[in-house]
Amino acid sequence: MERKRIVCFGDSLTWGFDPDTTGRFPEDSRWPMVLQETLGAEYAVIEEGQNGRTIATDDPSEGEKNALKYILPCLESHSPLEALFIMLGVNDCKRKFSYSSMDIAEEMQLLLEKVLAYRQFRCEKPFKVILIAPPPVSEAIRDSWLGDRFEYEISRQRSLELAGWYRQLAKKYGCVFLNAADYVRASDADGVHLDAENQRKLGKAAAEALRW
Predict the structure, then answer these.
(1) What is the tens place of the pLDDT at every residue in 142-181?
(2) Whole-structure pTM over 0.85, yes or no?
(3) CB atoms within 10 A of CB 26
(4) Which of 79, 145, 148, 198 is a plausible cystine mate for 194, CB 3.0–4.6 Å?
């Protein structure tokens, strides 16, 4: 029997960046693989996380990170899909981009429109889209090695505002909305990434969201 494919599309939070070691968590502590374990063998969960990925912005200092340019090849290579999780926006809060939360939401709107156009016109079977508002940058960013890159408290405020915008986008485009902050919080180790426990919590929450 063909398994139902689910793509988890995101940045380092989806890749499984460990804020304590700066390496990658093992599979049992990465939220997409916790989702896989929770759903069982009927599903095939595909990890599409990339460190530093932005929604729709080229990042000259970090290379090929633009999700808007990669999303269609990603969807085509993994089709047919049962569901697509999207969790992006934290990297767009970096100082060098100088975006407001509304700017970031408008980028996400572009990405969603591209995904939904693909689903409508190029897929035999529609797939569910789950938009996740990433956990906000925590107050620990002040003393983090990422603090300067994320502009301290300003990035925290931007990230706190994303959930409200994303909720509106999900309603407008008929997507499932999941606010990660209802379940997890960024680690005090760097103020941005999730520790192993919170990765596992997010995987469980994602499994529930799939059933909404």
Answers:
(1) 999 999 999 888 899 999 999 999 999 999 999 999 999 9
(2) yes
(3) 11
(4) 198
Domain boundaries, the chain: 4-210
Type of residue numbered 189 = A
Q: Where are the alpha helices (DSSP H) in the chain?
A: 12-15, 31-39, 67-78, 101-122, 153-173, 196-210
The string of DSSP letters for 115-142 reads HHHHHHHH-SS--EEEEEEPPPPPGGGG
The one-letter amino acid at 63: G
Tell me how far apart the alpha carbons of residues 19 and 4 are, in angstroms, rounded to a whole number.
Answer: 32
d(CA 160, CA 173): 22
User: Does domain 4-210 correspond to CATH entry 2.40.110.10?
Assistant: no
* pLDDT tens column, 52-100: 999 999 998 888 999 999 999 999 999 999 999 999 999 999 999 999 9
Residue type, 142: R
Contact predicate 97/143, CB 8 Å = no
